[in-house]
Write a structure and sequence with these properties.
The complex is a heterodimer of chains A (160) and B (287). With 160 residues, chain A is of the alpha+beta class. Chain A is 35% helix and 16% strand. Chain A is built from five helices and five strands, in the order E-E-H-E-E-E-H-H-H-H. In chain A, helix 2 packs across helix 5. Helix content of chain B is 33%, strand content 26%. Chain B contains eleven helices and 14 strands. Chain B has a five-stranded antiparallel beta sheet, sandwiched between helices. Chain B has a four-stranded antiparallel beta sheet with strand order 11-12-13-14. A three-stranded parallel beta sheet of chain B has the order 1-3-2, covered by helices on one side. In chain B, helix 10 (239-252) runs antiparallel to helix 11. The chains are: A alpha+beta (160), B alpha+beta (287). The A-B interface holds A 1, 4, 20-24, 43-46, 48, 51, 54, 57-60, 62-65, 67-68, 70, 111, 114, 129-130, 132-134 and B 1-6, 8, 29, 31-33, 36-37, 39-40, 49, 51, 53-54, 77, 100-104, 106-107, 188-190.
């Protein structure tokens, strides 16, 4: 089966890579582009561990073919920070000790970053629904909520 | 995942040509959130997959005074957040907001939800309640099918293998009209409707000029509770009328018992959700 050329932007860089027509975006990122931040938990869109941004919106990268990303902007956890610095959400997750086993964390961070990018001052309910597509089998939701709430509060204080 | 070839058409004609050559061994891909799990678990084994995301016409959402045209590949997330859809086609926006999780809603499409033809498809009942039509392209041109006739069974539609669902056309419901979609699920996100109900009420000079009640997950296909609708039409909508209509809607349902709920429980939910959606639809219609 002939490979196809996937042209897109990944973490701000234009990328051209040969992919099999039947691979998911998640597998292309992990296997062909060595971006192993996005994880495969369920492979059916139920757990959110594979969450990346497609044109700024969170998507389950296990539920789309790599070629569906042609011409579009993909951002993974590897590209969430800027200039080598952690994103404020990443800093807060480290400071508050949010990760337990850590497997769900890249997906949770991408979902949370999408919430804040759209709405810098989300309500608690909006934060909860924003990460409702992400399962944490360590059940570490309370600290996630605390860390995201802290960053949202700090952002609004800076903005004020 | 099982291997397949991937076609990337850029126009409806190009997509139709692929289907005319590959027809029964090809599957159309819109968002992929229903298709990919079925490709992964081997339920579907197409030799070809045809990705419609490069076809402009199926990605377009347009509205004017006559109504709303939703391209088949418009996402649930787009419908959830579109201001016109929220205001005028409220039940459709509400149903889009209930699909999967945000990660799924950004990929999942209206056309995919319809063509997957699950009896529980959330975005189907609002379309039945809004008198929508499906625009279908095939080798002999385009045809229109009322959405009430689009589903032919569990996971089956009237589309033939060489046809493509292009868009859904919804006539504007008029100024004194209101709608609401509710479903029952044990959890809000990432769940599938035990029962879903969409209602739409249109008022004219104090009486109900049009009533629509559509039910999901209570029969092999989404269906309308026509006797309940007729009971409401032609007179003012009263609390007692809503009660009787909710009771009659139960008579239209033919549910099965499965792991999500017993048939009896589903009938109970039809009554409750019909009552609630009618009350809200009436308030939104300004009644």
């Amino acid at each position: 089966m002939p490979k196809q050329v996937l042209s897109c932007t990944i973490n701000g860089e234009p990328v051209e890579v040969l992919v099999q027509p039947y691979v998911t975006l998640l597998d292309a990122l992990r296997e062909d582009l060595n971006l192993t931040g996005p994880k495969e938990g369920c492979g059916t869109g139920d757990c959110g561990a594979c969450t990346v941004h497609l044109d700024g919106q969170p998507v389950a990268s296990c539920l789309m073919l790599a070629m569906q990303a042609r011409g579009r902007e993909v951002r993974t956890i590897e590209g969430l920070g800027t200039n080598g610095a952690l994103h404020p959400l990443q800093e807060a997750f480290v400071r508050l000790g949010v990760p337990q086993c850590g497997f769900c964390i890249p997906g949770v961070l991408m979902a949370a970053a999408a919430v804040l990018a759209e709405n810098p001052r989300p309500s608690e309910e909006e934060i909860r629904y924003g990460i409702a597509g992400n399962l944490c089998r360590c059940t570490g939701y309370t600290k996630m909520l605390a860390a995201i709430t802290e960053v949202a509060g700090a952002g609004s204080a800076r903005g004020a | 995942m099982r291997r397949f070839e991937l076609a990337l058409p850029r126009s409806v004609d190009e997509a139709l040509r692929v289907l005319s050559e590959r027809g029964s061994e090809a599957k159309l891909l819109a968002g992929g959130t229903d298709l990919l799990p079925q490709l992964k678990n081997g339920l579907l084994k197409p030799a070809w997959v045809v990705d419609l995301s490069g076809v402009e016409r199926v990605r377009t959402l347009r509205s004017d005074s006559g109504g709303l045209r939703v391209g088949a590949a418009v996402s649930a997330r787009t419908l959830e957040r579109d201001a016109t859809t929220q205001k005028t086609y409220t039940s459709l926006a509400e149903s889009g907001a209930l699909v999967g999780s945000v990660q799924i809603r950004n990929l999942a499409t209206l056309g995919g939800n319809l063509c997957n033809a699950a009896p529980s498809a959330d975005m189907a009942p609002p379309l039945l309640a809004l008198d929508a039509e499906a625009v279908i392209a095939g080798p002999r041109g385009e045809r229109r099918v009322p959405i009430t006739d689009f589903f032919s069974g569990v996971r089956r539609t009237v589309l033939s293998p060489d046809e493509i669902l292009l868009e859904i056309v919804i006539p504007a419901p008029g100024p004194r009209s209101g709608g609401h979609y509710l479903r029952h699920t044990p959890r809000r996100e990432l769940d599938i409707a035990v029962v879903g109900v969409a209602s739409q009420l249109t008022l004219s000079n104090g009486v109900c000029s049009k009533a629509r009640i559509a039910l999901a997950a209570v029969a092999p296909v989404p269906l309308r509770a026509r006797e309940a609708e007729q009971l409401l039409e032609g007179k003012p909508v009263t609390p007692e009328g809503i009660e009787r209509a909710a009771e009659m809607a139960v008579g239209a349902a033919r549910p099965i018992s499965d792991q999500r709920g017993s048939a009896d429980y589903r009938l109970h939910l039809v009554r409750v959700l019909t009552r609630r959606t009618l009350r809200t639809a009436l308030a939104r219609a300004g009644g």
